[in-house]
Design a protein that fits this description.
Blueprint (H helix, E strand, L loop, with lengths): L2 E4 L3 H12 L5 E4 L16 E2 L2 H5 L5 E4 L6 H10 L3 E5 L9 H11 L3 E4 L6 H12 L5 E9 L25 H4 L2 H10 L2 E9 L11 E8 L4 E7 L6 E8 L2 E6 L5 E5 L4 E5 L8 H15 L9 H19 L5 E2 L2
Parallel strand pairs: 1-2, 1-4, 2-3, 4-5, 5-6, 7-10
Antiparallel strand pairs: 7-11, 8-9, 8-15, 9-10, 11-12, 12-13, 13-14
Helix pairs in contact: 1-8, 3-4, 7-9
Length: 330
């Protein structure tokens, strides 16, 4: 297979390394040369500064890892060219272009995987299986908390110029840290209402929101809450689920979860495999994408999943602009 990677910032470089680790060597690059990382690991790879020229090389799959606001500028021509797509989360910063993208993919029949990599966390997968089995009963309340100090993300660059901090690149904490908006829906079912407050309250010099408090209403009746921020130190990312017959607490730092089951009045600990580290999720995600492209597996995070997460994020913004009015989703 031939892969085209569009965007060679930190996440694009990670995908490149993982493709190589999976034995893929036919890789070409589309670059604007705005990345601030060293060039050494890109040596020897064909580089194109024109997307048309890159697509003329007939890649089988395109990995879209450029800034959020430029995703559709690659996804639309790449899908029209008949390529399979890996689109980093979120799929975009607006819904503009989604109908055209759907139409292109319908014509080509090619798959899409959206890069919500926490779906590939082994312990979250175990939690999903427990919920699906009914062992814990019905989820009633879900809380996800993610706070992380933005200047520590990429110490080699000015955080104020990063995509996460710039509205013109699709930044802001809600879109940039939208993973819980996806994995809560993946775990507990469809979200049908959203309310939120957000703003810029830290001393960080930002023109985008640096915190958000988002309330979710699930189709099955469960209530959800998501806290996101750019200023918490030390970083904290955790999930709690209260269900009719149990309780779950997962902590990203350890990767482990504690699960209480009412029927046995006992706790169990779910641990990731020995040696698990963060890149294992990205590697599993990319291995899955290769199999999806080969027709061996259905996409584990479809375009429609990605669009729904974006709709939730945009509804949160709309609610915050309207004094936390609850927004119903279609």
């Amino acid at each position: 297979m031939k892969f085209l990677i569009c965007g060679l910032g930190s996440i694009g470089r990670r995908h490149l390394r993982n493709l190589r680790a999976l034995g893929q060597s036919d890789i070409i690059l589309y670059r604007t040369h705005h990345a601030t990382l060293p060039e050494e690991e890109l040596a020897g790879l064909p580089v194109f500064t024109s997307l048309d020229e890159a697509l003329a090389q007939k890649p089988d799959a395109v990995i879209i890892s450029n800034p959020t606001s430029t995703h559709m500028s690659v996804a639309l021509p790449a899908s029209a060219a008949g390529c399979a797509l890996f689109i980093e989360k979120p799929v975009s910063h607006t819904l503009t272009g989604m109908h055209e993208l759907r139409a292109n993919l319908s014509r080509s029949g090619k798959p899409v995987l959206v890069g919500y990599h926490f779906r590939f966390h082994p312990v979250l997968q175990q939690i999903k299986s427990l919920l699906a089995s009914g062992e814990l009963g019905e989820p009633l309340s879900l809380t996800a908390h993610w706070g992380e100090y933005l200047p520590d993300w990429h110490p080699w660059e000015d955080y104020r110029q990063s995509y996460a901090a710039r509205a013109d690149l699709g930044g802001g904490v809600v879109l940039t840290l939208s993973h819980p908006l996806d994995y809560l829906r993946w775990l507990a079912g469809e979200v049908d209402s959203v309310s939120a407050q957000m703003g810029q309250i830290s001393p960080l010099e930002l023109s985008v929101e640096d915190y958000a408090e988002i309330n979710l209403g699930f189709h099955g009746g469960a209530a959800g809450h998501v806290h996101l921020d750019y200023f918490e130190r030390p970083a904290a990312h955790w999930l709690e689920i209260i269900a009719t017959n149990g309780f779950v607490r997962w902590v990203n730092a350890s990767g482990s979860a504690e699960v209480y089951t009412v029927s046995t009045n006992s706790w169990q600990r779910l641990d990731p495999p020995p040696g698990f580290e963060r890149n294992a999720m990205f590697l599993a995600e990319m291995a899955h994408f290769v199999r999806v492209c080969q027709g061996l597996e259905p996409s584990g995070c479809t375009l429609e999943d990605g669009i729904r997460a974006l709709e939730i994020a945009l509804a949160a913004h709309q609610s915050a602009e309207q004094a936390s009015r609850r927004i119903k989703l279609a």
